[in-house]
Amino acid sequence: MVQPVLKWAGGKRQLLDEIYSRFPADYEHYHEPFFGGGAVFFDLEPDGGTINDTNPRLVNFYEVVRDHPEDLISRLRGFNDPEANPDPEQRFANENWKGKDVEQYFYQQRARFNRRAYGDEEWPATDEDRIEEAALLLYLNRTCYNGLYRENSSGGFNVPIGRYANPEWVQADRIRAASHALADTDIRNEDFAYILDAVREGDLVYLDPPYQPMSSTANFAEYSADGFGREDQERLLETVQELDEKGVCFVLSNSGVMYEMYVDAGFHVDKEGATRSINSDETARGEVDEIIATNVPEDAREEKGQTSIADF
Ligand SMILES: C[S@@+](CC[C@H](N)C(=O)[O-])C[C@H]1O[C@@H](n2cnc3c(N)ncnc32)[C@H](O)[C@@H]1O
Asked: What is the pTM of this model?
């Protein structure tokens, strides 16, 4: 069992038992097409499947964790306290990308991260660039407010500095353990539909898409500059229907508003009361109901960790 390296909106640590209780007793390879912080993957430490996310910075991060863990750790050790003065040796020391003065080291790193705009032909050019990009992402994730990854409409990371007595951004043991867990994993940067070509009969797929908001205060669809709308939800349903036809097991978490869609499609669906740790507002938390849908029949599920919904 490995701890996730990044804190990510929609992290599934609180739902692990409920998710595992739908897993089949036997399966071949494990795949996770909406990886985010990868709470399930890291807890499970599977061998030989695929993970995927559309966010290229996130994908670069996990490739660096897998392939260059020691370089990443040593680069992270060179970072300074978020409240320190900006480093005069670094570019963008005096102003951020909007031309305003940068007064704290954290904002200097955020400006550096945002200047390295992905999508450029040159991004990320060399291994050194890729490691720098990954180190900046982890540093900002561990020192920003609430550990939230959020991009504005032009793809810029816009979360302010967090308030931590002792921010811990190196996390050497976690990085080494995560690197080990990722060693045999194929890491993709595609739309989730890649899964139809990546799976074989007998595989297991866990899907955790950006959630359709239940209310305006719980807009969990804002993980990245590309939203995940109703049409994507419909494509996702078609994709799991195809997985089902191929003899592949799937377990899917989603927002409560998708309940009927999965019931009508004939899958097993349960409602869960969610606790969304990313949202510090207690009232907003209670409003977000989740569902877990699966094609795994009850008698084919794993015994271990099985907890009936009725027990909650
Ligand atoms: C709910 S989060 C996953 C959280 C993850 N289960 C965890 O434990 O942290 C959803 C992820 O899907 C990614 N995503 C958004 N649209 C996608 C698409 N069309 N295909 C694949 N991934 C997508 C987002 O970048 C985000 O990281």
From this structure: 0.88
